[in-house]
């Protein structure tokens, strides 16, 4: 099927390009600066001394060229003229204007004068004026009128502040460039760190735009977030992703899983069973993430579960020490509740790695072990395994 002439794909790519390119540049900038998205231009960087770099970003089709009368350039000029006036026509804070494009600039185009520094500003202004006479379009006519407001010296100064960055990396090439900025990150983890940083950055920029782009994005915050993400990938730590997350549905009354049935046997409240289902969900999803990112060493999960089972067995002996085959159901239930309370409130020291302190990891692992089939590796009620065996016999 051919692409519709009304396709929004190019515009969508432009938005994602803005997200990724701004992240790339932030990683190159000093922590003392601030960033604005879509305030006056696509991206504005404001340094600690108040100077501004205003960038227009253009993600074009492969092979596109930027010609003398290109709307991409002249529309940006209109934006920059407003900023130039707001800055006092060069008498206020230093303002620089940058057109970043994936397109190329022909060597014989007057726009080639803006590809680097050292060009004569008077020549730029003269060639721009000549180019404006070549078209009578509404856009060009309006820009010519707006430029006439400037003095000759101001026009030279204005054009002298413009730089074109041609043939910049395309959107699919930016991740590799961003990862190159992550040299402090272990090479094995750079892709995962990039993905987490980008996910966070998309949320930051989205919230910034929802707020009208008024409040700045502090570049120091990006450095802090990168440091925190990288820290989670150290050998004594693991990233935590499911804090505050919950499954879409929770049915405490009819959930058929064994770990839930174990809690019903103890007579626990609906609220406590709900917490258990959430902990199971978080731990299961978290472990899946760790495995998908290949963050776990050989047998690490198995060794962790063995430690938990051994600790559980020690405390089970204490909790059930005074029980025997003749003990009343009420006493068995109390012992099971005591054992479960220990697992929920006193096992934070059972960490898969030293700095993984998130409690849903250990709590959820207990529930996963209580859900092993056909026979759970941990149980709470002293007679649960016998009950389970009886149920299986009846089913068989």
Q: What is the CA-atom radius of gyration, in angstroms?
A: 31 Å
Question: What are the low-pLDDT stretches, counting only 5+ consecutive residues below 50?
Answer: 4-8
Roughly how many Å apart are the termini?
A: 55 Å
Number of domains: 2
Describe the structure.
The protein has 396 residues and is α/β, with parallel strands linked by helices. It folds into two domains: 9-180, no CATH class; 258-395, no CATH class. 50% of the residues lie in helices and 7% in strands. It has helices spanning 9-26, 71-86, 121-132, 138-148, 152-160, 174-180, 190-210, 219-231, 258-265, 270-292, 300-319, 329-345, 359-369, 384-395, and strands spanning 34-37, 43-46, 52-58, 95-101, 162-165, 217-218.
Summarize the model shown.
By secondary structure, the protein is of the alpha/beta class. The chain has helices at 9-26, 71-86, 121-132, 138-148, 152-160, 174-180, 190-210, 219-231, 258-265, 270-292, 300-319, 329-345, 359-369, 384-395, and strands at 34-37, 43-46, 52-58, 95-101, 162-165, 217-218.
Output the keywords.
single chain, 396 residues, alpha/beta, 2 domains, 6-stranded mixed sheet, 14 helices, rod-shaped, ABC-three component systems C-terminal domain-containing protein
Helix-strand blueprint:
Blueprint: H1 9-26, E1 34-37, E2 43-46, E3 52-58, H2 71-86, E4 95-101, H3 121-132, H4 138-148, H5 152-160, E5 162-165, H6 174-180, H7 190-210, E6 217-218, H8 219-231, H9 258-265, H10 270-292, H11 300-319, H12 329-345, H13 359-369, H14 384-395
Parallel strand pairs: 3-4, 4-5
Antiparallel strand pairs: 1-2, 1-6, 2-3
Helix pairs in contact: 1-6, 2-4, 3-5, 7-8, 10-13, 11-12
